[in-house]
Structure formats: C-alpha cells, structure tokens
Amino acid sequence: MDKVKICIVGAGRAGEVHGDVYFNYIPHSEIVSIFDIDIEKAKNLASKYMLNEKYVFDRYEDALSYCEFDAAIITTPTFTHCLYTEMSAKKKAHVFCEKPMAITPEDCDKMMEACSKEKVKLQLGFMRRFDAGFQKAKQIIESEEIGKLVVIKSVGRGPGLPGKWAFDIKNSNGNLAEVNSHDFDSIRWLSGSEYKKVYAVAKNSKNPDIGRLYPEFYDNAVVSITMKNGIFGLIDSVCPCEYGYDARVEVVGTRGVLFIGSINEHTTITCTREKGINSPQILSWKRRFYDAYIAEDRHFIDCIINENEPIITGNDGKHAVNIVIAANKSISLGRPIEL
Ligand SMILES: NC(=O)c1ccc[n+]([C@@H]2O[C@H](COP(=O)([O-])OP(=O)(O)OC[C@H]3O[C@@H](n4cnc5c(N)ncnc54)[C@H](O)[C@@H]3O)[C@@H](O)[C@H]2O)c1
C-alpha cells in the first residue's frame, strides 16, 4: 500500500487538527472523505484540503458506501465513538479513535472486539505519549535516575470548555474525561502500574448557567489516586482556564524530581523595570502538542503500512474510561472508590 486513504469522521476541533496533520505532514496518507452530521462543517474542512464536495457526507453509511478508504479518524463526540468504530471495522477500515475511547467500558469492549474480529488496527489518541518531553521523562524514570517514584502530579487545565454536547455528563463523563483523560493515562504510563483507588472532589466554580441546565456539570476537580504499586497520583483539573493552556507534570522520586512542560510559549523572556519579567504563556493545546499529534498520526499510518500493532491500544483507552467513571462516582458519593 503506497498511500493510506483516510476518512475524517467529525469535522470539529480535533478533526481539523488531525486533518491538517495528515494533509501537511503525512505523505503516505490521503484524505479521501470527510463525514460530519453538520454538512457545512464537513464542507469547510474539505475545502481546506481541496477535497471535492462529492466526497463529503452527512451520513456515515454513505461515506462507507460511496467512498473507499483504509482508515477512519474518529473525532466525533465521545458518545458516538463506539458506533463509528464498529461501522468502520465492519467495512475493514482501520480505526484511530480520539480519547476518551467511549462512555462505558462495555462500549470499549465492543470496539476492541469489532476491530479484532475484522483484523483492523485500533489506536487511541493519547498523543502525550508521543511528546518528546513525556518520552524523555519515561526514559529517566526507567533509568531510576530520580530513584523510586513516589508521586506523579499532573496539572491538566484546558483553555476553553469543550462543545455543548459535553456539558451533559452522560454524553461525555464530564471534564475529567474530556480534559483529563490525558492526565490519567500519563499517570498510568509513567508509573508503570494500574489504578487501585481514587478519591475526587469537584465543583462548578464559574459556570452557573451551565449548572442550572446540567446540575452534575463541574469545571474544577482535584483527584487523588493510589496505583497498585503504591505510587500516588494527583490531578488538578481546571476548565475553562482563563490564562491559557497549562499541561505540566511533576514526578517526585526518592532521589530527585523531574518536571515535564512549562507554561511558557517559548524561552524568550523580557525584563524591564516598568513591566517586570514577561514571557508569553501557551494558549492552545493544538500548539503545545502539535509535534505529538504529527508523531501519533505518523505512527498510525506506519502501523497500517508495515502491519505493526499501535503502541497505544484499546485497552489503554478502556483503563482511562474506567478510572474516570470511578472518579465521577467518588465525586457523587463523597468517598474513595476501589477499582
Ligand atoms: N487528543 C486531544 O488532545 C483532543 C483534543 C480535542 C478533542 N479531543 C476529542 O475529540 C472528540 C471531539 O472533540 P472536539 O473538541 O473536536 O468536538 P467538536 O464539538 O469541536 O467537534 C465534534 C464534531 O462532531 C460533529 N458531530 C456531533 N455529533 C455527531 C454525530 N452524532 N455524528 C457525526 N458527527 C457529529 C459536530 O458537528 C462537530 O463538527 C472528543 O472525544 C474529544 O475528547 C481530543
């Protein structure tokens, strides 16, 4: 296979990030179709990639019937991931699915079963694992340079609220899923262990209008986790975060500490007597992790061409879904939850 033909399933924020990456950076891929229930969004995205409107669809059945593609890039709202994965797999299309994998672990199982039955790849969108800083940290941890791990603290603060569909926790599992699935996955990956216990608190700090419609909605949460190997995890979740996009991790070991990420956009700092020290902050997740999105998309295409298994699996996605559900249960019951 020279070029992997892909269909972008969902022309929103994540669909555009992946579309741009495939169009500009992955020469062994070709966008041959775009599907979104909002046809205008799909058409707008298609025009960016010079894709003829006859390959744009507002029903996925039509995209699958009238277009031939090897892979689906699923970037629709979370509650649709299971359906579109199953439909893609049935047509022998490999699946890249954005996080969170699904709303329930049962749906994650269905997705894995569908892909395994049809012998197609399934890769989950935990792009942080492809970020140079996160990869370096993993190496340092494995070398035991900072000793045995004690605490992994992950700051996950998103600049803007996700789409309205995510306000209802039943459609999204809330901000802990939408914003912090990445933090949960990082803690599991860096600790090299599985979740044992979680205690979470959350509140709606600044969105009373949303709270009136969706009483379970929260925009601030703090999560404490115990891993099976005894390492502690801490997540601090803020969304919307007024000052920008803030994704940093601090790993404390018995002999040292390591820090991943920064809130600075770049290393240029100005200092004047009048204005003090100044350096612009990171404003967007798209910019912070752009290289990681390129690397994860390249990995997906390489796995298809070379017939390798993706390093981030459905099982990784399911673990993140399970811990988010347990954390939400902890919030509603006000007590720790064992997994
Ligand atoms: N990895 C990351 O960093 C990252 C970043 C952003 C979003 N995401 C994930 O991507 C997914 C989409 O998020 P988003 O922020 O792009 O959302 P979005 O609201 O910007 O876009 C969703 C798109 O899906 C379309 N849509 C809605 N319901 C649909 C349906 N039933 N069938 C087909 N299309 C439908 C909408 O019209 C919209 O164009 C979510 O699961 C989200 O968590 C991941």
Give structural notes.
The chain folds into 2 domains: 141 residues, Rossmann fold, CATH 3.40.50; 181 residues, 2-Layer Sandwich (Dihydrodipicolinate Reductase, domain 2). It has 339 residues and is an alpha/beta fold. It has a 7-stranded mixed β-sheet, covered by helices on one side. Strands 3-2-1-4-5-6 form a 6-stranded parallel β-sheet, sandwiched between helices. Nicotinamide-adenine-dinucleotide binds next to helix 1.
Write the layout of secondary structure elements.
Blueprint: E1 4-9, H1 13-25, E2 29-35, H2 39-48, E3 56-57, H3 60-66, E4 71-74, H4 81-90, E5 94-97, H5 105-117, E6 122-124, H6 132-143, E7 149-157, H7 169-172, H8 174-178, H9 181-191, E8 195-203, H10 208-213, E9 220-227, E10 232-238, E11 246-253, E12 257-260, E13 270-272, E14 276-278, H11 285-288, H12 290-306, H13 314-333, E15 337-338
Parallel strand pairs: 1-2, 1-4, 2-3, 4-5, 5-6, 7-10
Antiparallel strand pairs: 7-11, 8-9, 8-15, 9-10, 11-12, 13-14
Helix pairs in contact: 1-12, 4-5, 5-13, 9-13
The structure holds nicotinamide-adenine-dinucleotide.
Nicotinamide-adenine-dinucleotide (NAD) is lined by residues 10-15, 36-38, 41, 75-78, 80, 98-100, 125, 127, 162-163, 178, 285.
